[in-house]
């Protein structure tokens, strides 16, 4: 049987910035709107996107 890591302390998702999504045999952290993934389990708030040379915002400060 699959263990729901989202219901235990086994998940390392950033509590205020992401939600835990249980998957078969594991889990994933999904960033909330206004946050961007900076590592496997950490989402950080996006403050101001900087446009890249091709017009797509890809760098954040």
UniProtKB/TrEMBL annotation:
The keyword Signal applies. Pfam families: EGF_CA (PF07645). The keyword Coiled coil does not apply. Keywords: Disulfide bond, EGF-like domain, Repeat, Signal. It comes from the Eukaryota. Signal peptide: none annotated. PROSITE patterns: ASX_HYDROXYL (PS00010), EGF_2 (PS01186), EGF_3 (PS50026), EGF_CA (PS01187). SUPFAM superfamilies: EGF/Laminin (SSF57196). Residues 2-44 form the EGF-like domain. GO terms for molecular function: calcium ion binding. This is EGF-like domain-containing protein. The lineage of its organism: Eukaryota, Metazoa, Spiralia, Lophotrochozoa, Annelida.
């Amino acid at each position: 049987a699959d263990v729901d890591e989202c219901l235990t302390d086994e998940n390392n998702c950033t509590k205020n910035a992401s939600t835990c999504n249980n998957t078969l045999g594991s889990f994933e952290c999904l960033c909330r709107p206004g946050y961007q993934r900076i590592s496997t389990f950490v989402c950080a708030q996006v403050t101001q996107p900087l446009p890249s040379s091709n017009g797509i915002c890809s760098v954040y400060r």
